[in-house]
Amino acid sequence: MTGFIVVGTDTDAGKSGFSAQFLQAFPGRFAYWKPAETGDSDTETIRRRAPSATVFEPLARFAEPVAPMLAAAREGRRMPSIAEVVAGVPDSPLPLLLETFGGPLSPWDNTALQAEMIAALGWPTILVTLSKVGAVARILQALAGLREFGILPAAVVLLGPEDEFAVRQIEKHADAAVVSLAFTDSGDATEIECNRAAFDRVSTALQTPFTHPAPTIADFIRRDRASVWHPYTSLESPDDPLVVVGARAEFLHLADSRRLIDGIASWWTILHGHRHPPLMAALHRASREIDHVLFAGVTHPAAITLAEQLLATAPWPSGKVFFSDNGSTAVEVALKMAYQTWCHRGDPHRQLFVGFDNGYHGDTFGAMAAGRDPLFFGRFDPLLFETLKIPVSAGRLDDALTRHRDRVAAVILEPLVQGAGGMRMHSPQELRDIFAVTRSHGVLFIADEVMTGCGRTGSMWAFEQAGIAPDLICTAKTLAGGVLPLAATLVSPDVVAGFQTEDRTKTFFHGHSFTGHPLACAVAVANFHEMATGQWKDDANRIEAVWRERLLPLSENRDVAVRIRGSIAAIEFAGTGGYLSELGQRMRAIGLSRGVMLRPLGNVLYAMPPLRTSDDSLHRIADAMIACAGSGE
Ligand code: PMP
Predict the structure, then answer these.
(1) pLDDT per residue as tens digits for the range 282-310
(2) Which among 185, 281, 387, 410 could bridge 338 via Cys, Cβ 3.0 to 4.6 Å?
(3) What residues flank ligand 1, with Cβ below 6 Å?
(4) Catalytic: which of 448, 471, 539, 606?
């Protein structure tokens, strides 16, 4: 449970008076926080007028009664950034009433408006104004402003003399409860009593996003079971799905008001944290200009910028970026490009791809052929094209490439960490050796960085740690910070060269409806700006240090292997029956009982949380994993 936001149509719209009355009307039910204030302290006023409320200190207080940004500048200080506000939300057992200043379009600081702060928090919002001349216009203007940022207040409150006409006008335009309150701002107990029914309406309007009543949860599950088919899940699974209604930072909010730590970053997608403010702000901004457009014969600024940003991280001086929309399609593109490259080079007999034991590259046909996991893809074996699968070993690769001389198009590997195959890790030296063998046979090398990319292993790309230059690089999951589906295949100049011809039969005939989606690209551009701060590196190191301190000691048990690389930690339990083992289910239940979402890969328990996960949450994940290890023995 987090809180709700009180925003006024403008300065002196009655926010503090309303907040004081609201807290007095519900003693002990809500806490108060004003992240930044100037002049006379509203925080102190609330302490005085609602003594039973828990009141948190602001992040910043400035003396002069002017706009906070200005007051801060005059004191040679700065406003806390939106990210700092989001990160600094007090850990309150009660829902917070968060009071803003000014109006929704007042600047928060030099870079953002107040509305962007509200959008970043994503909490239910109450819009208040004084019931006096111009109230309807002020409310409708503020609603229009908020709507631009995707914010639809749960309630609109008119403070002062009841105005039936105003209420009706606002109701016509606001999809919100519109409530009138008697308001002399005296804090008088009789005034609060006579407003009780109105406060109840406001509170009811707020309730919905906090918790769904139990019958609704049962109803969601019944409807889900009747109509939804979930990935990797038996239709007869005895386990009900968790009903998630919100997410922020490293947390998932469930409909039954539980809060879980997302220990696996929602299938390895969420890079910094859920609804990371700069990424959400980029999404809101972009959505005011564009939705989607095809990508053949058309381009857009976000895709161009993103391609440049991606190529700036590549190991070659130039090259190209081919967009798609998920990890499997990024891999399909790489496989098809590799084969077509050999066709253009006059060598169409190179039809074989080499993958590795425990490799996983996605669930589409080409990706299945490259992965060939017997449990997941064995059924489809008769339909898959021929590939080789060998142990992760330079020597074995050399043998295979020698045996199949002139027949292999490309080698495909997840650098340093093979994810879905059990978080199996190899060293940079082993990767360097495998790459050297591939090169010595003149075969193309595809780095599947769908899971390892964007900093998970402690470097931007995992392959960087081996100092190699793959021919094709696949990226997806974290590319847009996990906010939206987006994928890309980075193509080296050598491969590009084979397609640089006027012969239209040599075009790369491949594309998807949502290739290079403009909103996803805009978020990915913001993600790259975020990466440019370098904080991800400190975070990956910080997480790795916690794993080393807390989890490595488990490997003293002979039946337990611990593997750690960057933010990824895996614990493998020997002899417990592979992916379908009961142990996985048991460990998931232990995690949930401790407020941590884990999804073991059979007998391999792992964690890969968002990079900004707090130390406290990292230790809670480690505690849950240690508890699982205890139960596995
Ligand atoms: N490659 C790797 C290394 C992966 O881990 C995955 C997904 N787990 C994929 C490809 C496929 O990605 P997607 O699920 O987005 O199709």
Answers:
(1) 998 999 899 999 999 999 999 999 999 99
(2) 410
(3) 326-328, 331, 360-362, 414, 419-420, 448, 450-451, 476
(4) 448
